[in-house]
Amino acid sequence: MEARLASFVQTFDVDRLLSVRDAEGWAVICEAGRAWLTLEGHSQDKWLSAGERFVLPEGGHALIEADGAARIRLQPPAESRAARLVAIVHARSRQLLRAAANTAIVRPEALGCTARS
Q1: What domains can you pick out in the chain, each with its CATH number?
Q2: Cα–Cα distance measured from residue 110 to residue 88, given in angstroms and rounded to the nearest whole number
Q3: Consecutive 10-residue averages of pLDDT for the chain (117 residues)
Q4: I need a labelling partner for 64 at 20 to 30 A (CA). Which of 1, 8, 12, 28 fits?
Protein backbone atom coordinates (compact mmCIF):
# COMPACT_ATOMS: atom_id res chain seq x y z
CA MET A 1 0.00 0.00 0.00
CA GLU A 2 1.24 3.48 -0.84
CA ALA A 3 0.29 6.51 1.22
CA ARG A 4 0.80 10.10 0.14
CA LEU A 5 0.91 12.81 2.77
CA ALA A 6 -0.76 16.14 2.12
CA SER A 7 2.16 17.79 3.91
CA PHE A 8 4.41 17.17 6.85
CA VAL A 9 5.63 19.71 9.43
CA GLN A 10 8.64 19.06 11.64
CA THR A 11 9.72 21.39 14.43
CA PHE A 12 13.43 21.02 15.13
CA ASP A 13 15.43 21.66 18.23
CA VAL A 14 19.19 22.03 18.13
CA ASP A 15 21.04 18.96 16.79
CA ARG A 16 17.91 17.31 15.30
CA LEU A 17 18.20 15.70 11.90
CA LEU A 18 15.54 14.57 9.41
CA SER A 19 16.39 12.00 6.75
CA VAL A 20 14.25 12.07 3.57
CA ARG A 21 14.31 9.49 0.78
CA ASP A 22 12.35 9.14 -2.47
CA ALA A 23 10.74 12.58 -2.23
CA GLU A 24 11.43 13.84 -5.75
CA GLY A 25 9.55 17.07 -6.42
CA TRP A 26 8.63 17.63 -2.76
CA ALA A 27 9.21 21.17 -1.51
CA VAL A 28 11.19 21.77 1.67
CA ILE A 29 9.81 25.00 3.15
CA CYS A 30 11.53 26.72 6.05
CA GLU A 31 8.71 28.34 8.04
CA ALA A 32 10.88 29.57 10.94
CA GLY A 33 14.58 29.63 11.74
CA ARG A 34 17.20 28.27 9.33
CA ALA A 35 17.65 24.83 7.83
CA TRP A 36 20.62 23.10 6.29
CA LEU A 37 20.02 20.62 3.45
CA THR A 38 22.59 18.06 2.37
CA LEU A 39 21.70 16.28 -0.87
CA GLU A 40 23.22 12.99 -1.93
CA GLY A 41 25.16 13.41 -5.16
CA HIS A 42 25.39 17.22 -4.89
CA SER A 43 28.66 18.91 -4.03
CA GLN A 44 27.17 21.92 -2.25
CA ASP A 45 24.75 22.07 0.65
CA LYS A 46 21.72 24.36 0.59
CA TRP A 47 20.74 26.81 3.34
CA LEU A 48 17.14 27.90 3.78
CA SER A 49 15.99 30.86 5.87
CA ALA A 50 12.45 31.50 7.08
CA GLY A 51 10.12 31.87 4.09
CA GLU A 52 12.43 30.12 1.62
CA ARG A 53 11.71 26.85 -0.18
CA PHE A 54 13.68 24.27 -2.13
CA VAL A 55 12.30 21.53 -4.38
CA LEU A 56 14.06 18.20 -3.91
CA PRO A 57 15.68 16.87 -7.09
CA GLU A 58 15.18 13.41 -8.54
CA GLY A 59 16.20 10.42 -6.45
CA GLY A 60 18.82 10.36 -3.79
CA HIS A 61 18.77 11.06 -0.13
CA ALA A 62 18.36 14.43 1.62
CA LEU A 63 19.32 15.30 5.18
CA ILE A 64 17.68 18.31 6.78
CA GLU A 65 19.18 19.83 9.90
CA ALA A 66 18.22 22.91 11.87
CA ASP A 67 20.61 25.74 12.60
CA GLY A 68 19.15 26.36 16.07
CA ALA A 69 15.38 26.02 16.46
CA ALA A 70 13.46 25.75 13.17
CA ARG A 71 10.13 24.66 11.71
CA ILE A 72 10.24 22.84 8.37
CA ARG A 73 7.32 21.84 6.14
CA LEU A 74 7.59 19.10 3.52
CA GLN A 75 4.96 19.59 0.83
CA PRO A 76 4.25 17.07 -1.97
CA PRO A 77 4.46 18.18 -5.58
CA ALA A 78 1.38 19.70 -7.14
CA GLU A 79 -0.50 17.36 -9.44
CA SER A 80 0.52 17.96 -13.04
CA ARG A 81 -1.87 19.62 -15.49
CA ALA A 82 -1.96 16.46 -17.61
CA ALA A 83 -2.96 14.34 -14.60
CA ARG A 84 -5.71 16.84 -13.68
CA LEU A 85 -7.00 16.82 -17.27
CA VAL A 86 -7.09 13.01 -17.36
CA ALA A 87 -9.00 12.99 -14.06
CA ILE A 88 -11.53 15.53 -15.38
CA VAL A 89 -12.06 13.63 -18.66
CA HIS A 90 -12.43 10.36 -16.75
CA ALA A 91 -15.00 11.84 -14.35
CA ARG A 92 -16.98 13.44 -17.21
CA SER A 93 -17.01 10.23 -19.25
CA ARG A 94 -18.31 8.33 -16.20
CA GLN A 95 -21.12 10.90 -15.84
CA LEU A 96 -22.03 10.54 -19.53
CA LEU A 97 -22.02 6.73 -19.30
CA ARG A 98 -24.27 6.85 -16.23
CA ALA A 99 -26.66 9.22 -18.02
CA ALA A 100 -26.72 6.97 -21.10
CA ALA A 101 -27.38 3.89 -18.94
CA ASN A 102 -30.38 5.63 -17.36
CA THR A 103 -31.84 6.67 -20.74
CA ALA A 104 -34.70 4.47 -21.87
CA ILE A 105 -34.44 3.15 -25.41
CA VAL A 106 -37.85 2.59 -26.96
CA ARG A 107 -38.54 1.04 -30.34
CA PRO A 108 -40.85 3.16 -32.52
CA GLU A 109 -43.25 0.21 -32.88
CA ALA A 110 -43.79 0.22 -29.08
CA LEU A 111 -45.11 3.79 -29.37
CA GLY A 112 -47.47 2.83 -32.16
CA CYS A 113 -45.38 4.43 -34.89
CA THR A 114 -45.28 2.75 -38.25
CA ALA A 115 -42.79 3.06 -41.04
CA ARG A 116 -43.88 5.15 -44.03
CA SER A 117 -43.67 3.73 -47.48
Answers
A1: 1-103 (2.60.120.10)
A2: 38
A3: 54 77 87 91 91 88 87 80 70 78 69 68
A4: 1
